[in-house]
Amino acid sequence: MSKLYDVIILGAGPGGLAAGIYAGRARLNTLIIERAQDGGQIAITNEIENYPGQMLEGESGPSLIERMTKQCEKFGCERVSDNIKEVKLDGPEKILIGANGEYHAKAVIIATGAHSRPIGCKNEGKFRGKGVSYCATCDANFFEDLEVYVVGGGDAAVEEAMYLTKFARKVTIIHRRDQLRAAESIQEKAFKNEKLSFMWNTVVKELDGDGILDTMVVENTKTGEQTTIHADEDDGLFGVFGFIGTVPNTEIFQGVIDMDPRGYIITDEEMHTNLPGVYAVGDVRVKTLRQVVTAAADGAIAATQVERAVSDYTGEAAH
Ligand code: NAP
User: Fold this and answer.
1) Is any atom of ligand 1 closer than 6 Å to the C-beta of 152?
2) Does the beta carbon of 177 lie inside 6 Å of ligand 1?
3) pLDDT at 137
4) pLDDT score for 163
5) pLDDT at residue 319 in the model
6) pLDDT (average), residues 30-56
7) Is the CB of 203 under 6 A from ligand 1?
């Protein structure tokens, strides 16, 4: 018979770990399940400068997350590394079935986050890891003194493009409009960066090369004119980084939990989903501001709700 946890938290990004800190501290029997490394998207974020209290020189996503993980340990959260494939969430006892085992709990907090949206151009998959990347922190050093193109115009694209200028010889942001979506403060820094240039009203149509990315076809969104860009002859290759938003990690909850048309989980202000005992926090849920601070706040709220629900838990279905 599997152990019945008070709460299982699925995902160890900022939302899941904040939930773990609050649940563990409330003496709930807590299990955190993560399939990969802790941190979710901020595990691949170079600079975090807007998390309250975050003034440490050189702080990065991974170092912030490391401290959150340690805090969860301190409050007694158990950990399992597993990839959950199936969920049974409608009864009072929630069951999560993974590649390595089955996990049971009175409540579940979904903190599975989101992943990078593909650029959507021809041959993108073929050049993934061979010129195409979605993580500047992971791959910037492969493009030392080379040319790099960044697709997108939001906070992520502009911040990561600035980070890439520390490595690449030249970084060009390709944006589909003539105005960035990124916050003014981020834009100000970007426009001052001499290694950064912009290709406005442009989308990437096709990538090409003989095993390694050296050619790209872009299209002007106003005129429809297509241009082929070739790598500098001495370089022989260039990099393309995609930062055009995210897609929620909700495949296993399709048809189980209410979602919006884009697949984000619908919750109320206290993180309840449509299923009793099931909560969603962070980037995976419908919300207006997806930040570390809002994910952490969601986690705290959900864990506090679980604490109340678990004290009333009878093992009978809620009506
Ligand atoms: P985002 O804000 O949704 O921006 C996505 C960008 O990609 C937009 O400029 C959008 O263009 C463009 N785009 C979307 N689909 C496209 C397509 N098919 N082809 C070409 N371009 C496309 O996404 P994000 O920058 O990843 O940020 C996600 C969330 O994280 C936001 O809430 C953001 O504030 C937050 N974030 C914050 C920070 C920070 O505060 N330091 C850093 C990173 C991320 P349009 O502008 O034309 O729509």
Assistant:
1) yes
2) yes
3) 82
4) 94
5) 47
6) 87
7) yes
- DSSP code string of the chain: ---EEEEEEE--SHHHHHHHHHHHHTT--EEEEESS-TTGGGGG-S----STT---TT--HHHHHHHHHHHHHHTT-EEEE--EEEEE-SSSSEEEEESS-EEEEEEEEE---EEEPP---BTTGGGBTTTEES-HHHHGGGGTTSEEEEE--SHHHHHHHHHHTTTSSEEEEE-SSSS--S-HHHHHHHHH-TTEEEE-SEEEEEEE-SSS--EEEEEETTT--EEEEE--TTT---EEEE-S-EEE--GGGTTTS-B-TTSPBP--TT-B-SSTTEEE-GGGB--S---HHHHHHHHHHHHHHHHHHHHT--SSPP-
Q: What is the pLDDT of residues 237-247, one digit of tens each?
A: 999 999 999 99
139 carries an active-site annotation:
yes
Q: From CA 102, how far away is CA 96, in angstroms rounded?
A: 6
Active site residue 77: no
Does the annotation count 121 as an active-site position? no
What distance in angstroms lies between residue 153's CA and the mean position of ligand 1's atoms? Answer: 6
DSSP per-residue string spanning 71-89: HHHHTT-EEEE--EEEEE-
Choose the catalytic residue: 6, 38, 139, 155.
139
Which atom of ligand 1 is nearest the CA belonging to 181? 46
**Would you say the CB of residue 54 lies under 6 angstroms from ligand 1?**
no
Q: How confident is the model at residue 184 (pLDDT cuts 50, 70, 90)?
A: very high
Query: What is the model's pLDDT at position 1?
Result: 66
Name the residue with the closest Cα to ligand 1, atom 26. 245
